[in-house]
Amino acid sequence: MKKLTCHCRAVEIEVNLPDKLEKVVRCNCSLCKRKGFIMTFVGSNDLKIIKGKEHLKLHQFHTKTAKHYFCSNCGIHTHFNPRFDPKLNGINVACVEGIDAFELKNVIIADGKNHILDKKK
Description:
By secondary structure, this protein is mainly beta. It has one domain: Metal Binding Protein, Guanine Nucleotide Exchange Factor, Chain A. Helix content is 5%, strand content 35%. It contains one helix and ten strands. The chain has one helix at residues 30-35; strands at 2-5, 12-15, 25-27, 38-42, 47-51, 56-59, 67-71, 77-81, 89-92, 108-110. The strands form two sheets. Strands 6-7-8-9-4-3-10 form a seven-stranded mixed beta sheet. Strands 1-2-5 form a three-stranded antiparallel beta sheet, with no helix packed on it. Strand 8 and strand 9 (89-92) form a beta hairpin. The longest helix is centred in the first third of the chain and has 6 residues, at 30-35.
């Protein structure tokens, strides 16, 4: 288990991550590109809010399927539930203690700007 915290440490999350992150993603959607979010995904049972749930605020936009959570004190986005699978948890890798997001290699770019769920039939 790893600890994930916001900047002011009001929010603390326990997350079950492998020692080596296999898939790290940067998304180019309108929200992620603005906040510089770098993420990886864990299952619904792999994330537990330890403290500060009362400080988490929810942001939703467009289809209002994805749920983006951020600390109301410091504004740091800690995690989200993606619209492609709302049961998953996307976590902000830069918030995980012991991980330097600038040292990660092979970061995948996700094309959220042209999301498959936005394609007109």
